[in-house]
From TrEMBL:
Keywords attached to this entry: Hydrolase
Entry GO MF terms: hydrolase activity
Domain of life: Bacteria
Domain called Beta-lactamase-related: residue spans: 174-464
InterPro entries: Beta-lactam-related, Beta-lactam/transpept-like, Diverse_Enzym_Activities
Name of the protein in its database record: Serine hydrolase
Length: 483
């Protein structure tokens, strides 16, 4: 059995030509699998997930601690990695070193070999992660009932740190910015490949992989896509008058309400203010004729929600579950604080000074704000959207169309702002979210099918965005310069 690891290494060295390209579907899937498996099973100690994603005959070879079978590996993980000790071991992969080699049997893919370099740290609440070692690894993944499971592990060539901690910068930046938690999701070539959560929920409790963030106006793209799904299904018209289903009492005497349509709502051309409570009268009113110009409005999305719910006799929660949340397995996404939501995973919100803001719970849906979700759930939504969202081609292109111009190289489509003028003739769909103690960004580049999302639970976010965009993320420097 111990010869197996040597045979694997020989196989890799002798079949370099079998390595798949880094933009291939298999490479991207295995990169995501590595990210999620070790973040959830090792870093966050989700033992149920770990147990269901390791093969029954797992073999683990370590150059310092010897051989472990499945039972010993699982017990040691509980005992030494997930014991609740003040200092918690953490593992991070160097994604640039990943290589993937497919395994076929008579032409059928049954597994893959993945190799690379990973780093190990000790994490202690309130302190920077301490880099303890670096090693090479070779993993054999097998497909069992369409689930990737870890079957063979070689962890070898462990070395002491030789340079500055390569991953400590983000944690240090969060502490210096008085922002406890950061969630990042990465889309590469149309696939969600990375989900990472840094920091703490409340400056004390380590933020888990499946931290629940409030994402403010990132609610709107969800509702926009539900609306497009209804249009694609023939249940709603893009330019159908909404007054047939809803007229707000505040504007019933202003006949301009007859001009309101889903298109005008999704492009923010309703003529409404952002929120009526922000006006002196505290009443909804038209500030200009609908369809004549752009003005960002949460009220418009709420107007659309009420019209759709009245027409279809279904709530926005029911429609979102039917068209998005259930099919995409977005099982940790909520419009409001439902009893089944795990509040212990909620990232509490902090102001510029790093002071905790009292949590305000909501108990009814708002189509424009207050969505509660995880990085992985919203990442799945972005992945789905960038791949066409199962919309008809004509409607998907209508979503990407420059419906209204905001500034030079800046437009609004259906539910998304559209920025043009990136290098390589690239363009971006983006949306942001901002509430007290909340700062979020979701962006997609349809030409390359790359994208990312950033969730922060604090107000003092500028330096964090600058670091992430200018140094770490696709075309981020160009995006930062467009702000």
């Amino acid at each position: 059995m111990k010869q197996l690891g040597v045979l694997i290494l020989i196989f890799i060295s002798c079949t370099t030509q079998a390595q798949v390209k880094k933009d291939s579907n298999l490479f991207i899937v295995l990169k995501k699998q590595d990210s999620i498996f070790f973040e959830r099973g090792f870093n966050q100690c989700d033992m149920n997930y770990l147990e269901s994603h390791i093969a029954n005959d797992l073999k683990f070879y370590h150059d310092q601690s010897g051989f472990q079978n499945r039972d010993v590996f699982f017990d040691n993980t509980q005992k030494y990695i997930c014991s609740g000790s003040v200092k918690k071991p953490i593992r991070k992969v160097d994604a640039n070193t990943l290589e993937v080699f497919p395994l076929y049997n008579n032409g059928d893919l049954y597994g893959a070999i993945q190799k690379g370099i990973h780093h190990f740290y000790l994490r202690e609440t309130g302190k920077d992660d301490v880099w303890t070692s670096t090693a090479k690894f070779t993993h054999v993944w097998v497909l069992e009932n369409k689930i990737w499971k870890l079957s063979e592990v070689l962890s070898f060539d462990h070395q002491d740190p030789v340079d500055e901690n390569p991953k400590s910068g983000i944690e240090k930046l969060l502490i210096n910015s008085n922002v406890p938690a950061l969630g990042i999701g990465i889309i590469e070539h149309g696939k969600l490949t990375k989900v990472e959560v840094y920091g703490t929920l409340d400056k004390q409790t380590t933020a888990p992989y499946n931290t629940i963030f409030k994402v403010a106006s990132l609610t709107k793209p969800i509702v926009a896509l539900v609306t497009l799904k209804l249009i694609d299904s023939g249940l709603l018209g893009m330019d159908e008058p909404l007054h047939k289903f809803w007229v707000d009492p505040d504007i019933k005497e202003d006949k301009r309400y007859k001009k309101l349509t889903p298109r005008l709502v999704l492009t923010h051309q309703t003529g409404f203010p952002n929120w009526r409570y922000m006006t002196p009268e505290n009443k909804l009113s038209f500030q200009f004729d609908p369809g004549t110009k752009y003005q960002y409005s949460g009220e418009g999305f709420e107007y659309l929600r009420k019209a759709i719910e009245n027409k279809l006799d279904k709530s926005i929660e029911e429609l979102a579950d039917e068209y998005l949340f259930t099919p995409l397995k977005m099982l940790d996404t909520y419009f409001w604080w439902k009893p089944e939501m795990d509040e212990t995973r909620y990232a509490r919100n902090f102001n510029v000074k790093g002071e905790e803001i009292e949590t305000e719970k909501y108990y009814e849906a708002n189509a424009a704000a207050n969505l509660l979700t995880t990085v992985e759930d919203y990442g799945r939504f972005l992945e789905y959207t960038i791949n066409g969202a199962d919309l008809s081609e004509d409607l998907y292109q209508e979503m990407l169309k420059h419906q209204v111009q905001l500034r030079e190289n800046d437009f609004f489509g259906l539910g998304w702002e559209i920025l043009t003028g990136f290098s390589g003739d690239e363009y971006a769909l983006l949306h942001t979210g901002k509430d007290p103690g909340v700062s979020t960004l979701a962006i997609m580049f349809p030409k390359s099918e790359n994208g990312y999302l950033i969730f922060l639970n604090g107000d003092n976010a500028d330096k964090i965005y600058e670091e992430l965009l200018t140094n770490r993320l696709y075309l981020g420097n160009e995006l930062w310069n467009k702000r």
